[in-house]
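Can't paste images in this forum, so I'm doing it all in text. The chain is below; anyone willing to post the predicted structure tokens underneath?
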Amino acid sequence: MEDQDQHQPVPDGERSSWSFTRIAGLLLIIVASLIVLYLTVGFIAWQSGENIRSEREETLQSEQISRQVTLAQDDISQGSYNLALRRLAWVLEHDPNNEDALALRHQAEAALKTALTPDAPATPAPSPEPSPTSGANGDQAQELQRMQRLERQNNWQELLDSTLAFQRQYPDYERLKTDGLLYNAYLNQGLAQVQGDQIEIGIYHLAQAENLGDLSQEALDYWLWAELYLQGIAYYGVNWGAAASFFRDLCLAAPFYQGACDKLYDSLVAQGDQFSNALEWCPAIEYYREARQYGRNQALDDKLSQAIQGCAEATPTPAPITGTLPVTGTESIDPPTTGE
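Text version of the structure:
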């Protein structure tokens, strides 16, 4: 009896259940393996993409640094020492050990010091200085000498006021010399203003200088940068995309001017936020990625990750074909009948 029990065949139902369990387990193993493989490949692809983007960001910054060093060298050769020093200050802020920038800074500082050192000791100007109108019946030559001293002292605002008043009072006296004084006053005062917080009046003064003579390349550059800045500020906080367009050009040409790259970064992030808030994740990705070229922090990385995930979830995938589509435009054909 025991031998018969041991060799008793397994019922078909139990065998089918056991086979189904093995197949289901095998399928689960396969699915789990595929998921692990998918996640591994996805992680490798993500890591590779991050490395590529990081390398691209480093390359862009390196190119921009090289560009500013080259432009600084050109500025020094043209005598624009202050502009060269501003470029080099930006370069050394991002690359403190840049040997070319350090050498050029030393060269520009030495050249600027030489240019500002007078050949002979300057004679102290008497104080108080007479006003342009105090000598209405007196010596115009003395007033002209006073204005020339103001020029040597780089007192541009007082020189500007004095020369304008002098020309109104004595329009025909040494006009060529007074126009030269007025040109220098407009030019240097305008340059100082566009580099500070009086950009609009600075542009006006540069335009007045241009009416009196040709502008240097440095002045033309600052004039262009000032206009780009004002156009970007006009859209800042109103139309982030337009603001980013102007600050993008300014950051490329003069990253040191008025915090151009910082304002570009803010504009790009804000534009990306607008798309994200509207659940338009895919366009937001590009703005966040571009912003990472000018500043990286955890908050921006989180926004970028959220946008990438949202874009992936929002992208429709083709639905599987579950049936056959009906064929239209045909009629059924009856089988031929045979006569009896």
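The longest helix spans residues 12-77. The radius of gyration is 38 Å.
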